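idk why but the lab printer keeps eating my pages so im just putting this in chat instead. protein + guanosine-5'-monophosphate:
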Amino acid sequence: MTRKFIAGACALVLAALAGPALAEPKVAPTPRAVVADNPRDKDHPADMAAFQVDIQGSKVNAILYTAAGAGPHPTLLFLHGFPGNETNIDLLQAVRRAGWNAMRINYRGSWGSQGKFSYGNARVDAAAAVAWLADPANAAKYRVDASRIVVAGHSLGGFMTASAAAADPRVAGAVLIDAADIGARKATIVDAASRQAAIDRLRPDTPPLVATPEGLVAELERDGDQLRLAPLLAKLGQRPALVIGAELALGPANRKVVEAARAAGASAVTETYLPTDHSFSDARIALESEVIRWLGQFDPKSAPRPPLPLTAAYDPSNIFARIIRGEAPAYKVYEDKDVLAFMDRAPMEPGHVLVISKTSKARNILDIDPADLAKVMAVVQKVGRAEVQALGLEGFMVLQNNGVGQSVPHLHMHVIPRVAGKPAYLAENAAADPKDLEATAAKIRAAMK
Ligand code: 5GP
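predcted complex ->
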């Protein structure tokens, strides 16, 4: 069952309430990885490595959250802001749950990394981190797919992201989160007073850095023209970039950066703006969802499946037809001459049952004979009662997808246990252990009597 499952279900409910005009959901679904853990992979569990990367003789602290599964995995390099108080670790964890490795470094001279912090050094550090991930020995050790390295960064890190991506064509894509156009600040320094104001603005953020505000402002005055964001973003050309702006912070400035980058050759920039502050304090889930949805383009497995046509000839080779004919196995909970109910192999919740007609060749609810549908629904009701009794449920959900959200072209009703307060997951569920399916089927079957 996939995200389209809920989208399809929502469409069904909305259509029933208000007609087909509301069939298109306005809000994109929250990816499962944002809200749910994955089952533990015993052979290749998710893990964390902490190490140091040597950059021009300084040891830079790095952590790598490695994704579960044999891999190799696409990998996100994350670059923090100035000084990096907002760690964005929640984003990295969610990205890792989505199947990505996620690496984070602290620039030279920040948060205990050796060396001196400067804008120029941080650019070198970002590029070195990309090179470290692409190094065949590191890629093999940490199951990194070097052809799918994406860089993301917040604030100053957004700038560093554009810098690293512009410098290295191995970077497949870039995510700029309320990115700072560092060099733009040069124009605000016109005299001693404005220079002092710039220094005073930086001072509260420098304690975690081996840097002085005076030195950073001097660097800005000297190198500011090379620290402009739009020309770097433009250098991505056809490579995809996601710009996520915070409306209450750098969002308006990001809009102008994107416009200039597009004019200068960036042809695959996606923009989104969230009504929040620079730290996305009240939009963490939205931020994670935007990033993970966008990252989906690098993962063919997660590409949305095209909808099944609503009208088409019945395909007798579909998996449910094979189950009816006994050609494929299923843990059955009920069967009579017209209807079959069996465990979903990838349940949304333990006890998830599918109910199908054995005699109808309907692909969806539009082409089933109402008399056949009535027989199916009578069994849906029985299964619901049995699930409540056998599993001690407080409630359950009946769902049915047509076209969009549907993966098997034989009409089927889902009868799904619900747990109060637990969201209905929106993405692919893991296949259950057959022993668990068998045991749960036995309980429900017994309660059907
Ligand atoms: P749909 O997405 O079409 O609404 O739902 C199809 C459901 O069938 C999914 O929840 C999926 O897990 C389930 N399913 C797909 N293949 C099989 C199978 O071979 N056996 C069983 N028992 N369920 C299956």
